[in-house]
Amino acid sequence: MDITVNILLTIATAATPLLIAAIGELVVERSGVLNLGVEGMMIMGAVGGFGAGYLTGSPWIGLLAAVAMGAVFSLLFAVMTLSLATNQVATGLSLTLLGLGLSGMMGTSFVGQPGERLPNLDIPGLTSIPVIGRLLFGQDPIFYISIALTAAVMWFLFKTRTGLTLRSIGDSHTSAHALGIKVIRYRYLAVIFGGACAGLAGGHLSLVYTPQWVENMAAGRGWIALALVVFASWRPWRVLAGAYIFGAVWIGQLHAQAFGIPVPSQLLSSLPYLATVVVLVLISRNKRLTMMNTPASLGQPFVPDR
Amino acid sequence: MKKLLIALMTTTAAMSLAVTAEAADKFKACWVYTGPIGDFGYSYQHDQGRLEVEKALGDKVETAYLENVSEGPDADRAFERLAREGCKLIFGTSFGFMDPEVKVAKKFPKVMFEHATGYKTGDNLGIYNARFYEGRYVLGQIAAKESKAGVAGYIVSFPIPEVVMGINSFMLGAQSINPNFKAKIVWVNSWFDPGKEADAAKALFDQGADIIVQHTDSTAALQVAEERGLHGFGQSSDMIKFAPKAQLTSLTDDWGPYYISRVQAALDGTWKPGNVWLGIKDGAVKLAPFTNMPDDVKAMAEATTKKIADGWNPFTGPIAKQDGTPWLKDGEVADDGTLLGMNFYVKGVDDKLPQ
User: Fold this and answer.
1) In whole angstroms, what separates CA A251 from the centre of its chain?
2) Is a pLDDT exceeding 50 seen at residue B224?
3) Which of B78, B106, B130 is where one domain is finished?
4) Which CDD domains does the protein's record reference (chain B) (predicted)?
5) What is the pTM of this model?
């Protein structure tokens, strides 16, 4: 039983940063903006979170710093693409490159230093319940934030008026603009929210997952998050499913190897990608529904006529 | 798409991060790393070597490096760019740079090249390597003494000779103490992804291993060992700060003396393509202080280290291959060529080698 719990906990840790970054990007894309800078914002969050935690000795300050770092960094993207109407794909890619380089430079003095880890939740009486205790009440704080965030985004996008407005901007910014909606303002807020989420995901890496700073430690997780959003056809619960399928198959293949199942390890290593794509393609087979969920003006720059 | 983007991004990042320098008349020595110099592992140690060169010969030499260069054909451009920028001596520090370096070395016959851990040489291309397997034999012995379960978890990157050699040496060491010792092997197919390494360590511990060994670069696995109150070995750098209670020792590399001697030779005009394989006795392979173990185990580890430094090779027969067919006769020592191309397991390894 213990091993099952351990496996589930490991899966949750692996899935959490993907989920948070993808949920943030989902909101950005729903507003019609494609930000390919997730990896860059994530790594900036990781270095900011680690640095603040290391310098102040408080991982909680680190957590806040990670979120702030991601948000501030995304502002750069917002100014470029929204105010100056630059190409979103190119700007997003450069954001990633800039983030990778800048974080490496900022983190030079943190290399080789052990950092602060965010403590796991520990509620007397509840966490010690066998099996479900540790799963429900004994995980790291960011895990709970990730679940709450997914629920909040679902509610916001589909149950609130502001959410409806945001989606309408993503579908047609010209119509939204004609109706008097402040397109650029909405998009600014969405991009900053996405940046904050990516930063938080990065903070998870350097404060929970592997409490250390090393360059390039996001190791492509931002790109996986981006892919999850598309494959999940812009639906929050599918992003959740996708992140956990990815985590589960990834951890599962490690156990298969440790157990000695004679399948080539290269194949096993690629399984998480394959499995996630296959599952998400299967659940998005309904073409009409997918069309409905795809933000129609995704990636198009918008210059309001004055 | 993802892979393509990452490749694009890392190479561009690498290109943009090149450190170029001012004075044009100084001798220029350059390095190419596969990881970031901030990995606190393999590439970090090579860069420490570069810094030692600057310290020792700084008034005569300027250095430059490219980091995050992906292995394979894409590395061509990195080497070519350095050669065009006036680097006179170029060190490629990773196995996967072998073919690109051979190609670029032919194109620039006046530039001196050195390649680490490979086996192809040329008129202006030398090779150098470190006998990490020597240290891994000692790790194996410590693991067999310290493990209560008799099972180690072994995290590995890619099935290249270097890694296979390490697994074999580790198992020979372990089984010299406990013939029933087992290692569970997990391939993460990456040199550097802290998250993956941590996940692999967790999976191995969950399956009953109580000591972790790695042939990957980050401190993540040791940190998991520390959290779980178990033990493990560091890699490339001394990682004791990350796992004060968990690290038994760390298999570290010290490239400084070698780099200084080679750059000096190039300055003197005596550089010739070499083929050196440095070990414990040359100080290129070092074991960090033995910690978190009883005195008798420590004494044993020190004795074995000394024995190897005095010239004993862990690959000394009788050794059989995994399927039981004989490989080395009693007293026979494996030749370097076989070791450098090692693509088989020795008896006692409980894993199928990925092809």
Assistant:
1) 19
2) yes
3) B130
4) PBP1_BMP-like
5) 0.85
Q: Do A210 and B207 touch (CB under 8 A)?
A: no
Each domain of chain A, given as residue ranges in start order, spans 2-293
- Which of A39, A216, A261, A263 has the most B C-beta neighbours within 10 Å, making it the best mutation to test the interface with B? A216
Question: Are both B179 and B301 inside the same structural domain?
Answer: yes
Is A214's Cβ below 8 Å from some Cβ in B? yes
Q: How far apart are CA A240 and CA A220, in angstroms?
A: 18
For B294, the domain range is: 132-253+284-340
- pLDDT at residue B16 tops 50: no
Q: Which residues from A are below 8 Å from B68, CB to CB?
A: 215-216
In this structure, are B172 and B36 located in the same domain? no
Contact at CB, A265 and B189, closer than 8 angstroms: yes
Average pLDDT over residues B246-263: 94
Strand partners, B115: B92, B127
Contact B288, B248 (CB under 8 A): no
Per-position DSSP letters for B5-66, written without gaps between them: HHHHHHHHHHHHT----S-SSSEEEEEE-SS-GGGSSHHHHHHHHHHHHHHHHTTTEEEEEE
Average pLDDT over chain B reads: 89
Cβ of B203 within 8 Å of Cβ of A254? The answer is: yes
A156 touches chain B (CB under 8 A): no
B116 and B167 share one domain: no
Residue B152 lies in a domain: yes
Q: What does the pLDDT read at residue B291?
A: 94
Cβ-contact A193, A72 below 8 angstroms: no
pLDDT tens readout for residues B183-204: 999 998 887 789 999 999 999 9
What would the CATH number be for the domain defined by A2-293?
A: 1.10.3470
pLDDT tens per residue across span A231-268:
888 999 999 999 999 999 989 989 988 888 877 878 88
Q: Is residue B324 one of the residues assigned to a domain?
A: yes
Name the domain count of chain B. 2
